[in-house]
Amino acid sequence: MNSNRILTFFTLTGIPGMPEKDLWMALPLCLLYSTTFLGNVTILVVIKVEQSLHEPMYYFLAMLAATDLSLSLSSMPTMVSVHWFSWRLVTFNACITQMFFIHTLGGVESGVLVAMAFDRFVAIRFPLHYAAILTHGVTGKIGAAVLLRSVGAVLPVPFLIKRLPFCHSNVLSHAYCLHQDAMRLACADTRVNSIYGLLAVIFIIVLDALILLVSYILILQAVLGIASREERLKAINTCLSHICAVLLFYVPLIGMTLVHRYGKHLSPLIHTFMANVYLLLPPVLNPIVYSVRTKQIWRRIVQVFCGGRVGP
Q1: Which residue among 149, 164, 234, 248 is least enclosed by CB atoms within 10 Å?
Q2: 17 in helix, strand or coil?
Q3: At the topology level of CATH, where does 2-306 sit?
Q4: Quick one: pLDDT at residue 3?
Q5: Taking CA 212 as the corner, what is the angle to CA 207 and CA 215, rounded to the nearest 5 degrees?
Q6: Is the pTM of this model over 0.85?
Q7: At residue 7, what are phi and psi to the nearest 5 degrees?
Q8: pLDDT one-digit tens code per residue, 259-284
Q9: Could you tell me the residue ranges of all domains in the chain?
Q10: What are phi and psi of 146, to 5 degrees?
């Protein structure tokens, strides 16, 4: 079967139909990646140096920041090469490697969001037992479980792609490699790839979405059980940043899925835009949301950049 694989590289796509305008992507792309790196590194550094942030809630936030940073690093090489230098060729093995990391980190982000929802549920429902339930050891085990689950689910994908023969077009739809995008170029039966991809999505994304929904139903019940209106508002306020992060992850994902499934008649620009929003927007906005809405992080950032003490 390998003998039928004529191509040894894929051709990436920048802005469909407008290659001469790819340079217009350079400045916003530079701004997006710079903001992503600065924001997520700042979150990680602040959580590391600020002793008051050494709690499960902020450890999970550090996991989210590390995942967003890694996801950006996974997509950046090909995005930059395509939009800055018009280098559109990527070797078969490099494409598979990038594919593995992008899909794995997407699964990790979904899992971390579920862990953060669990953290909020425990904090609101069992405030007196919060420290006893979510110890540092338990937090670390949850993080390891999230990572291992995603790696295990995505690990077969490179092998499923490598077994396929490619003897037609080698042009991908985006400036980075995705399993479903490469799979459609194969000149062989791809039902195994399609079925496994669907099962992996159900096992990670769909399952996590259901868990998040149930978690917030339980959180809402716990909040409504609080007697004081002021305390109810305070409890809800601790969840707002996480709700924003969930929406930033799932809304672009659902939009991209709907466009891919039902928008075949739409312009390729729409497909590219939705895919890039899903990949680039959460890593940029998550640290901004948490920095603005988390007083401890905001105070520390202001203290570092402005100097001196920050009032309560």
Answers
A1: 234
A2: coil
A3: Rhopdopsin 7-helix transmembrane proteins (1.20.1070)
A4: 44
A5: 125
A6: yes
A7: -80, 145
A8: 877 777 777 778 888 888 889 999 99
A9: 2-306
A10: -60, -45
